[in-house]
Every structure is written in C-alpha cells, then in structure tokens.
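## Example record

The block below lists the input lines for one assembly entry, exactly as stored, with component labels intact.
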Amino acid sequence: MNPIALDIRALAKQFGAKVAVNNVSLQVPAGSFYGLVGPNGAGKTTMLSMATGLLRPDAGSALVNGIDIWAEPQAAKRTLGVLADGVRQFDRLTGRQLVTYSGLLRGMEREEVARRTEDLLRVMDLASDGDKLVVDYSAGMTKKISLATAMIHSPKLLVLDEPFEAVDPVSAANIRDILNDYVSFGGTVIVSSHVMDLVQRMCTHVAVIAAGVLKAQGTVDEVRGGKSLEERFVDLVGGRGTNEGLSWLHTS
Amino acid sequence: MVAHILGLKLRLLRNGFKRSVGQLIGVVIGGLYVLGMIVMLALACWFTAEQNPFPGQLSILIGSVAVLGWAVVPPLLTGVDLTLEPSRFVHFGIDPKVLGPALVLAGFISVPALLTILGLLGSAGMWRLQPGVMLLALAANLATAVMAVLLCQYLTIMATALRAKRRFRELTFGLLFLLLVSLGPLLSSVISAAETMSDWIDPISAVLAYTPLGAFNALPGALAAGDFARLGICAVLGAVYLGGLYVLLVRATGAATAAPAPQQRAATARGLGFFKLLPATPVGAVAARALTYWFKDPRYAISILMVPMLPIIFWFAGNQSGSYTMMYFLGPLFGILLGFSISADVSYDNTAFALHVLTGISGAADRAGRAAACFLVGIIPLLLAAVLPAVLSDQLWRLPGDLGLSLAAFLVALGVSSVASARYTYAVALPGENPMKTPPGNGLRMALTQLGTMGTMAVLLIPVAVPFGIGLATQSATLGFLALGIGLVLGLGLLAGGIVLGGKWYEQRAPELFQAVLLNR
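Predicted structure tokens for the full assembly:
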C-alpha cells in the first residue's frame, strides 16, 4: 500500500489576474484524517478540484494512491471518492436511484450496488426518504446523499469539501462515526472546513491554506503548537479586526 | 426610498451588461434589430396615414397586441428579470406603501419596456393628418404601455406564487406550449376564412375596445369619428382598468413582501425505475438516468411534445394548401430533431455532470448511454411517422425509401450530437428553471453550434438522400430499398463513429466541459 494517499505536487492555478492556488505541495499520509482549513476564498475548493480531476491545473500534479490523476484519470478515480462543494446532483432521481447510479457508473455489480445502497441509506438516516426525489431534499439531506454517492465503491481515499455544512448535529455525529470507523480500518479522509473546533477534535493532521498559499501542514499537535487550533489559525492567516468596530450596535 | 430602488434597478441593469462582453454585444444587436423594426413600423404608420382605411381599428389592435404580449410572454415563457422580485424584500421591513409604487416604477427600467413605449408612441404617427387626434393618440399609447407593464408585473407575481409548486410549473408550461404551437394554424385558418380584412378587423377591435387590452387605444379612433359617447366610455373604462390594476399590483407586491411563497410537497418514485430495467453496466446506467430525465425533466419534454405537435401543424398546413406532402417528411424530421435534442445533454446536466467526471466513466460509455436513451424514446414515434403516411395514402412503394431516410436521419443525428455535446456546451435553462427561458446574449454561440451540427447532419445524409430523391421521382421501390440499405449502414456506422470520436473528445476534455457547465456557458 502506498504510504502517501494523496500527494499534491506544486499545484498552481490562476484565473485571469488572480492567483487562486500558488504552488501548493501537500502530502496526506495513508490512514490519516486530514483537515484542510482556510478562510473563505483561500483556494481550498480550487485545490481540491485540481486534486480530484475536476479542474485542470496550470502546473503541478496530484497523485492519488500513487497514480497521477491527470495522467491516468480513470485508474486514479477508481480508489477515490469525492464530495464536491457547490455541485448539483442529478436531482430528478430519487435518493436510492442516485446512489445506485453512482455505483453502476463505476461498473459495479448490480447486487453489490443494491446491498451497499441500502446500507448507505440506513447509516445516513435516509432509509425512509430513499424514494423521494433528491430535488425535494433539504440541504443537509442532499449533503448526506452526495456523501453516499462518494462512498459506494469503497474508495481508499475520501476527499470531502465542506461535508458538515448544513448537516444537523445528529447526522454530523453519525457521519463522523462512519468516517472515524473508515479511517481506523485504513481509509484516508480529507475534509475541508471552517470549523476549527471540529477539525481539532476530529482530525489527526491539518493543513492551513490562505490566499492560495500553504501556511502550515503537519499533525494537529504540531501545527497548533500548544495553542488552540483556532488561535493558531488566526495567527497564521491574520486579518483579525481590532475591537473598536461597531459601538452603535451596543443597544443599551 | 423610491429613488434608492430605482437606482438599484439601474445599477443591476448596468452590471448585467458588464458581466460579459459577448452578452452585451448580443443585447445591443438584439436591441438594434428590434429598434429597427419599430422604426420601420412607425415610418409605415406615418407614411400610410393617407391611405389607411381603418386607423381606429388598427390602433386598437396594435395596443391590444402590445398588452397581450406583455401579459403572456414574460410571466409564462421567458420569465422576467426577477432581481427586484418583491419577495426579495421580505427581510427589509420597508413600508409597503412606499415599496409597492417603487417596484412598479422600477419595472419600467428595462430595455423591452423602453422599446415598447417607443413603438407605441411611434404608431401614433398614423393620425398625423389630424394633429388634435394625434396628441390624444400619443397620450393613449403611453397609457397603453403603462397598462402593459403593470399587467405583466401583476401576472408575474401571481405566476411566481403558483410556480413555487413544481408540479404546477411543469404542467402549465406543457399546456401552454401546446396552446401556443396550435395557435398559429388556428388563427390563420380563421383569418383566411374571413373574406376581407374588414370582415374581422371591425368586430374584433370593437370588442377589444372595451377590454383592458384596447380601451386606451380606442380613444383616438373615437375622437376622429366624432363618437363622443364611445370616447367617454372607453376613457372611463381605461382609467378604471388602470387604476384597479395599480391597486391590485401594489396590494400583491405588499403581500409578496410580507410572506414568502410556501414550500411544496415532496414527490416520490417507488423503487429503481429504469435502473432496474436496463443492464447494470455504465452504459445501461447512463441510459437509465437519461431516460428518467426524458420523462421527468420538462426541458426534455419540449422535444417529446414535438412528436404529437408536428403532425398536427402539418395537417393544418395541408388542410389549407390542399396538399399533404409535408406529412411524408415527418419521419426524417423527427429523426433529425430527436437526434439533435441530445446535443445539449451535457449543458442540461449542469454541474451534476461532476458525478460523471468523478466516477471516471469512459467517454464512449457516456456517449453511448445518452444516445441509447434518446433512441429508445424516439424509435417508436419515428417508425410510426415513417410508415403511416405511406400506408394511409396507399403508396406502399414509398415505404422502404421513407423508412431508410428516417432511420438514417435519426442515427446520423444521434452520432453527430454525440460528438457535438462532448465539445460544445452553451447556456441553457438550469435544472428546475422555466424550460422556455433562454439565458440572454447567448444567441450567437448557440445559433452557430446548432447551425454547425444541423449542417453536418445534412451533409452526411446526402448519400441516402440521393437514391431516396431519385426513387421518389421515378416511384421506384428498388431505389427505396437501396436508400434503406445505405441508410442503415451509413447510420449505424456514423453512430458508432460518433460515439467513439465523441468519447475520445469527452475523455480529453471532461474537466473543461465541467468547468464550462459550472459557468453555464
């Protein structure tokens, strides 16, 4: 087994005059629960899109379990599950049909797909909603069904862009349990998030990215260096305002 | 506050143009085109003033068409620019007494509204021989323009509330489309039945004069004819209609700002549907997904609706001209149009296409699945359209040729579309949007793509069309069989070639395709 589940080598992307991702290199060890944190517009989604084959980088490469995703996309995608952010689903399908579709597209057997679909619907608390059209799902339910489509082929690496956004606390806890279980049996997870607290509790490793540049990477303890991750993050990223702000907001 | 909202609307209009140069050019060209037509019409009204036998009736008709157009087209078909939709102001707590009038006024800040006002004012030129009447006509036309915009706004608010229910939205559009398509033939039958123009223009305009559509524009005619009773009645009616509409509109705006539209009930489907029926392979899965969309997504329904509509239109046309030859071309036409309809498939997927990219499905499987779904949907109507005309008209010698050209057209169109949709995407109505809505400024790119696709299909069909044509001229069944043979070989070959080539392009460009649909362009 390859010791590095996701090897990002000097990825760069520029949109017009704006450098979205500036030569980011990042090694995600196999079996780690990796957090990717950064302010809004830091380039997290752009970087993950390039690492998962959705956006062609200007320079650099990304190796998924040792296979270059831009040189051999089909082979690399076989061991990769992705929850992309801000992407629609085929929402005229029911939840059950959508998960089935995702399995069949990957060339899996019908019986295997059917069994895993029911399992996934059950653990996502969607068993009773499996026959509803995805277009009628709430934001949190859509997130969960998308997660299910990313997991049906039991990938070795899961890349999840904002997986907990809009998900209720109970479902989020269930999803965390599933992911922890997955990691403890050798899987690798990368999550991007804004919630430092969550990343600190959940992840083994973390990378901080701001304005397209990698500010820090390593185990959570290494990166936070005795402080809380949130404090360390603010130090790294900067941009905290002074506390003078809005005196008129004090209502009393 | 009113000034703020008007300023906001102006800013939105300007920023909309800034978004892309192509769009700006599209709007400018489109605007100039319409402006040119309006100037032509105004000039025609001006210079034919001396020969115009019924300016009064014509004025009523012009006004009515303008109001009716505004009442039907934007709320139901193209959709209106809803950036200033009243329900967006729910959170601001602005006094409805101020917000209502402000939004109503803001509705006039749009290119179509300005063009309508210009056009209506221009049509007053037909009264230039009587300056007094022309002054009244100018005022009346302005009032009609106001009526048109207010009616449009009111109906839009009503339609938005109803459209929040998805089922309703999809159903109305279907019915409306049917109605609109059949309207043309129906009207032309009625009009050609009337002997002369005055036979129908008098009664129609007389009725319209008392409706909100034509009340104001009936004024100049009544004044010119010295019919003061009618002048008074229409003036009062117009004022009442406009006043009533204004009150209704302000009230509806207020209601829409107070409470947002309610949510709809969720729809369900039992089991796996087409996924159970088709093979459990990537190709089968894509075909099952596409088939589900053919029946569940109203944007595909346009292509399906065409199947019953085209024969009806052709029959109407044949009914009038006395020749039903058009019916024989239904088969090839279905083939081309149905096959062509998958050329926007990836654009219709929008960002859901990400799933195809992420699963790393092979390009050929993606292409083949989409083509298979369209084939399954289209093959039965296509065969019926190819066989029935020849059988019903008892010209069995036609049968092989008709069948050959129809099948070849369908297969070739599928092949060409499989290549085109792997390379060219264009802005389409988003999933769940009004399917008739085309994003603005998209015309040129879309027209070029469609022209290129259609042109390629036509050229590739020449080897079948030649024996078919000669066979038709000589009434030869042998040449018909030749066309059938060539058609099947050529069609299947080009379909396979299209899937392979399209698949290759797809695999090279899948990420770029995804980025293009992400921007919906």
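The two ends of chain B are 36 Å apart (CA to CA). Chain B touches chain A through 44 residues (CB under 8 Å).
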